[in-house]
């Protein structure tokens, strides 16, 4: 036995006033927040100041957050800091600092250092636990681990090393203690070095050790509140193993997930079992004595590689919240689980896909939970439809003994009718709701629109009239115009209630081919309807011939006369559109009929100043010419109007 007394002028600091710098209310839902750490060693929860302390061995610091994960303080310059332990009154935080071979104490309200206790050169303490009125620490480096204690009850702190007995720890052992069994301390590095000590006396007395020969690593361990059971997170396998502390005989385990790496037990005995599994639950919650999980948590991550940190679980002491530290590619997150001891409730609702309005229909469903709800559990039902868009209460329905429910309803409204079933939750179950929709029949009506397939001159003001048949309540119709082409989107022309004859009219000025539509949105008992009419619009076109010396009739037609030495100029004015071109057609009269001059059916850009007619000055021949808009050809450039021809211009030549 070696007892080392350390004289120091530093005693435990007088506690500051217990005023939390940041408060936090009860969390309404699970949340998460990134942490400014590069590794995680341990996590403890201070219920008095509502703070969470997380050690970062790699960066050598402790980060303090409030219950939302907001950082409220940082303690740097703690090389390798790992194990954390709160005093029973939550006034002091102890930290194992292996790089300094010391245990450091901090005031939890101010995060100022209140004491530093050297554990001996090269001891490198890593893990802490309070038991038997002493602060115990697992220490050692490499493959040599030992157990020591720090006694702060006297005038001077006393460090006692080498209390592991005949247990060989392959590294600094992890420790577990519980206020309900203050004289019990559990230690572990792997299954073969799992041990329980009586620490009520001056030294630790070994009371039980594991007899297994397995070398499975134990990443975390925790005692039940009464100290009779020990739960370990063994990295190999898919179980959190359970041991009776009196003799370390193995008890029925918790079937969890691959790579167990964390465990925390609440004051009421609820077990949080964590695993570093990518495809299975990260955390599973077990009620005291139960082997089926009350609920499961699986971290969401776009990369699918977010895992629970080793020993990364801690309960709020009363069990209201569970805190977890996760790691995703080096990014650490604090997850706050707000109702871990509540069974997750799930509702399914099944309504028929279709139904007839004003006829009864039946809605059924189930309510399931890991803790089944009792018969008679009240469920609130709401119906949402076109007449009750914010929902109408259908009262309370009750759950059957087999977890099912059903009710009948006669929907007064057609269209989509949604039934929402809600459970308010309880002290043991989470609230939830679900819904399903049914398409309820509505009566068809008629809607017509005039002028379909008519063609109008450019700039015509055309009156369109829609006629609406019988409906339930809604008598509003909207008329839209959708011209062809660019830069003219569909627009609302008029919305109004139809007159006593069921009609609504709107006047539209036409400059392009246009689809006009009338829309009735429907009502709670009448289906919506749309009627459309397509109307063509000709372009505006005018032509002229210049250079003639007279105009006179030949037969019944007026001709412009040109000298054979003259060159006529044909000019065309046409309503413009981007890249629009018009076609010139010239015909010659022979043998009592007009014939095309094939070489002169040419296209010209709108806006061309004039086209000279060369090669037509043979005396005695009669000609005619016109300009045309021909939609839908590459030569014309667009197709937003209906085919349009100008009037013919007649001309002849004389000597």
UniProtKB/TrEMBL annotation:
The keyword Cell membrane does not apply. Residues 1-29 form the signal peptide. The keyword Nucleotidyltransferase does not apply. InterPro entries: Host-pathogen_enzymatic-act, N2O_reductase_N, WD40/YVTN_repeat-like_dom_sf. Coiled coil: none annotated. Residues 374-395 are annotated as: Disordered. Keywords: Signal. It comes from the Bacteria. This is Uncharacterized protein. It comes from Wenjunlia vitaminophila (Streptomyces vitaminophilus).
């Amino acid at each position: 036995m070696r007892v080392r007394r350390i004289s120091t002028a530093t005693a435990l600091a007088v506690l500051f006033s217990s005023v939390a710098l940041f408060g936090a209310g009860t969390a309404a839902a699970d949340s998460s927040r990134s942490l400014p750490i590069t590794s995680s060693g341990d996590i403890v929860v201070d219920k008095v100041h509502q703070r969470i302390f997380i050690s970062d061995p790699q960066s050598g610091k402790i980060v303090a957050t409030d219950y939302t994960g907001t950082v409220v303080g940082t303690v740097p310059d703690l090389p390798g800091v790992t194990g954390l332990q709160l005093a029973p009154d939550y006034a002091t935080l102890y930290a194992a600092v292996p790089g300094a071979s010391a245990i450091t104490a901090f005031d939890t309200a101010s995060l100022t250092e209140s004491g530093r206790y050297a554990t001996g050169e090269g001891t490198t303490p890593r893990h802490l636990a309070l038991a038997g009125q002493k602060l115990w620490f697992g220490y050692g480096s490499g493959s040599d681990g030992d157990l020591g204690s720090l006694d702060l009850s006297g005038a001077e702190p006393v460090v006692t090393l080498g209390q592991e007995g005949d247990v060989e720890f392959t590294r600094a052992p992890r420790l577990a203690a519980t206020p309900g069994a203050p004289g019990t301390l559990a230690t572990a590095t792997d299954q073969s070095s799992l041990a329980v000590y009586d620490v009520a006396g001056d030294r630790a007395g070994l009371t039980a050790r594991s007899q297994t020969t397995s070398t499975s690593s134990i990443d975390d361990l925790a005692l039940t509140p009464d100290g009779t059971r020990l739960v370990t997170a063994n990295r190999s396998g898919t179980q959190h193993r359970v041991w009776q502390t009196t003799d370390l005989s193995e008890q029925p385990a918790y079937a969890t997930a691959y790579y167990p790496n964390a465990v925390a037990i609440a004051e009421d005995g609820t077990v949080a079992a964590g695993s570093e599994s990518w495809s299975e639950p990260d955390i599973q919650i077990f009620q005291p004595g139960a082997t089926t999980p009350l609920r499961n948590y699986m971290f969401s991550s776009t990369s699918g590689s977010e895992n629970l940190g080793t020993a990364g679980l801690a309960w709020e002491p009363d069990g209201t919240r569970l805190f977890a530290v996760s790691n995703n590619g080096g990014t650490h997150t604090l997850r706050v689980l707000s109702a871990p001891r509540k069974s997750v409730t799930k509702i399914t609702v099944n309504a028929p896909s279709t139904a007839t309005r004003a006829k009864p229909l039946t809605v059924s469903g189930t309510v399931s939970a890991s803790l089944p709800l009792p018969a008679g559990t009240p469920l609130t039902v709401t119906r949402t439809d076109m007449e009750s868009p914010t929902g109408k209460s259908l009262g309370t329905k009750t759950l059957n003994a087999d977890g099912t429910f059903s009710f009948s309803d006669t929907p007064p409204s057609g269209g989509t009718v949604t039934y929402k079933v809600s459970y308010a939750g309880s002290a043991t179950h989470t609230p939830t709701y679900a819904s399903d929709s049914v398409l309820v029949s509505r009566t068809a009506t008629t809607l017509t629109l005039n002028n379909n397939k008519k063609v109008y001159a450019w700039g015509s003001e055309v009156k369109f009239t829609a006629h609406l048949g019988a409906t339930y309540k809604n008598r509003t119709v909207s008329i839209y115009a959708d011209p062809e082409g660019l830069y003219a989107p569909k627009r609302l022309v008029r919305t109004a209630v139809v007159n006593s004859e069921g009609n609504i009219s709107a006047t539209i000025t036409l400059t392009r081919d246009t689809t006009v539509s009338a829309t009735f949105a429907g009502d709670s008992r009448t289906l919506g309807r749309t009627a459309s009419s397509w109307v063509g619009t000709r372009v505006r076109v005018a032509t002229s011939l210049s250079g003639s010396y007279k105009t006179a009739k030949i037969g019944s037609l007026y001709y412009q006369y040109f000298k054979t030495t003259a060159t006529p100029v044909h000019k065309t004015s046409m309503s413009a559109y981007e890249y629009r071109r018009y076609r010139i057609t010239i015909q010659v009269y022979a043998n009592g009929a007009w014939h095309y001059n094939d070489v002169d059916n040419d296209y010209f850009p709108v806006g061309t100043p004039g086209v000279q007619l060369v090669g037509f000055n043979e005396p005695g021949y009669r000609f005619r010419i016109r300009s045309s808009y021909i939609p839908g050809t590459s030569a014309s450039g667009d197709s937003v109007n209906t085919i349009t021809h100008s009037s013919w211009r007649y001309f002849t030549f004389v000597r």
